[in-house]
Amino acid sequence: MSSESSAIIQDMDETSKLGLSSTAFYFFDFRDDAKQTLRGLLSSLLVQLCYQSGVCYEILWDLYSTLGKGSRSASEDELMKCLENMVTSQGKAPVHILIDALDECPDTFGIPSERERVLLALKNLFDLHCPSLRICITSRPEPDIKTNLTPFASQSLSLHDQVGQKGDILRYIISVVDKVTTMQKWRPEDRQLVIDTLSEKADGM
């Protein structure tokens, strides 16, 4: 999870602990197939929200009962409807949802692809026009993600070209190069070449 997302979650948790809002987050991880799917996203958000609200708990319990108390699995449409019900049931209390590294959701297999299905689910949430719902999404600026999400974005911030972001990346690379024992034996110009190449090609990551 990125440092920016960790800071956002920490801020949201403060209001959540005070009972002033509900907070749920999800990290798409390219190293874990189970964390690259729409089902994984929906299931995680539902469980997190039901722990923070009695109303959300009842909504999830109703779905569980409808499914024969575990005798069959919920479809993605049923999970989506359950999430929509939770979001709209909170009245004026804010519901914060943070989705980190959306670009790590694969856009390769299936018609539609997993990422297309996630983007459609997000569009369904936006189309609720629920004033208490706040969604924060972090991602590399992939064309399909920008095309689908830009119309709904009230605020957008790119860190890729920020001087501070580039400086943080450069300092991190230098610290790693300085700690690697084998690199300490390299010629200074070779170590500098590694630093320059990695920092130039980091692309904000």
What does this structure look like?
By secondary structure, this protein is mainly alpha-helical. It is 53% helix and 8% strand. It has helices spanning 3-17, 38-50, 54-66, 76-88, 114-126, 143-149, 163-179, 181-184, 188-201; strands at 22-27, 95-100, 133-137. The chain has a three-stranded parallel β-sheet, with helices on both faces. Helix 2 runs parallel beside helix 4, helix 3 (54-66) runs antiparallel to helix 4 (76-88) and helix 7 (163-179) packs antiparallel against helix 9. The chain is elongated.
Sequence-ordered SSE layout with sheet pairings:
Elements: H1 3-17, E1 22-27, H2 38-50, H3 54-66, H4 76-88, E2 95-100, H5 114-126, E3 133-137, H6 143-149, H7 163-179, H8 181-184, H9 188-201
Parallel strand pairs: 1-2, 2-3
Structure characteristics:
elongated; Barnase, Chain D; 205 residues; 2 domains; mainly alpha; 3-stranded parallel β-sheet; single chain
